[in-house]
Design goal:
The protein has 356 residues and is of the alpha+beta class. It is built from 14 helices and nine strands. α1 packs parallel to α4, α6 packs across α10 and α9 packs across α11. It binds 3,4-dihydroxyphenylalanine.
Length: 356
């Protein structure tokens, strides 16, 4: 083998080496047990006596040269700077847009309405979705024969009955006949009972939350929906206070030009009671398909708290008066955003949710 030719081969090969793997391959080929240096060394004993020393030195020198080349290359490869940033991150490329979640439209409307009431001095309270039959009906002066108590209108729970606590005489006959059944609350009004039983008047409270009714699901009905209950109790609270508060709400949610009307109605827990309509926000009161050509849209029920309710919670009905109202969030959200199907709120289709 020609040592000079090997030197040239080494010089050109080492230049093209760029990785630890290539360098190792190079080392094995030249310095390995069956490598070129080993082969050269093995030929020495068969050389004429006088040449052996010189060839031996040449092979040794070649081996040292290869070792030092490998050493240098090793340093170069390991000390190589990290790839320049520009190849890792091209700052002229469009950024990666993260899909951020956001509040559900129902949560937004609840927040908006609670904020409006909070500014008017109402505190925000929550109650449980599993209620007693007493709080949901009896305490609200809803008689035993009322159709809303029917199993077709309320989800009763098949839970073990809890012991019935005897009620005081002042709660009356109906209350004594309570069965102690549990149910999924059919409205947020029972939180009136909870709050008034645990706090003294004066009070001003709003209660957002889920309610449940066994309704067949269609474009305007759902077995679960949201309400906000509100009530205020103090000395000398009058119907005009109710009107003022609700008008402030309607104007804050639907704009200053909105008109409002109170229609006489019946609710067992208020007397007098009224349903409240706003002028149709689609046709501005002219009459369209959304308002059924009436020009008005019903948005809530309200009234002055019935003295029997005060009696059930132990408030002095001669001393205190109060108003109460209950509104459906989905209805308000549908009007506000122009949504024509309540099911859209609960299907969690991102094409719908992404619009809010
Ligand atoms: N609880 C009633 C319902 O779910 C709504 C309601 C009407 C609440 C009149 C009230 C009220 O507080 O005064 O249909």
């Amino acid at each position: 083998m020609d040592i000079e030719a090997i030197k040239t081969q080494i010089d050109s090969e080492i230049q093209n080496i760029n990785s630890p793997e290539e360098l190792e391959d190079f080392r094995v080929r030249f310095l390995g047990r069956k490598g070129i240096i080993a082969q050269l060394t093995s030929t020495i004993p068969s050389l004429p006596q006088q040449e052996r020393a010189a060839v031996g030195q040449d092979v040794n020198a070649l081996k040292n040269k290869i070792l030092s080349l490998i050493n240098e290359k090793q340093k170069l490869i390991t000390a190589r700077p990290i790839q320049p940033a520009v190849t890792l991150c091209d700052i002229s490329m469009p950024g990666i847009v993260q899909d951020l979640g956001h509040l559900h439209p129902i949560t937004k409307v609840v927040d908006e309405i609670c904020t409006i009431f909070n500014r008017m001095g109402f505190s925000v309270v929550e109650g449980p979705e599993i209620e007693t039959e007493y709080n949901n009906f009896t305490g609200l002066n809803i008689p035993l024969e009322h159709p809303s108590r029917d199993v077709f209108d309320t989800f009763y729970l098949k839970l073990p009955r809890y012991p019935v606590i005897p009620l005081s005489r002042s709660t009356g006959k109906q209350a004594n006949r309570q069965t102690g059944k549990l149910l999924l609350r059919s409205h947020t009004s029972p939180v009136q009972i909870r709050v008034m039983k645990s706090r003294k008047a004066p009070l001003a409270v709003v209660v957002p939350g889920r309610v449940y009714r066994p309704d067949a699901v269609d474009a305007s009905h759902s077995f679960m929906f949201h309400q906000i209950e509100g009530f205020m109790v103090d000395k000398n609270i009058r119907f005009s206070d109710l009107k003022g508060v609700l008008e402030a709400l309607a104007k804050a949610v639907f704009g200053k030009d909105i008109k409002m009307r109170f229609r006489p109605h019946f609710f067992p827990f208020t007397e007098p009671s009224a349903e409240v309509d706003i002028s149709c926000i689609i046709c501005q009161g002219k009459g369209c398909s959304v308002c059924g050509k009436k020009g008005w849209l019903e948005i809530l029920g309200s009234g002055m708290i019935h003295p029997n309710v005060f009696k059930y919670v132990g408030y002095d009905a001669k001393k205190y008066t109060g108003f109460a109202f209950g509104l459906g969030i989905e209805r308000i959200a549908m009007l506000k955003y122009g949504i024509d199907d309540i099911r859209l709120f609960f299907e969690n289709d991102l094409r719908f949710l992404g619009q809010f």
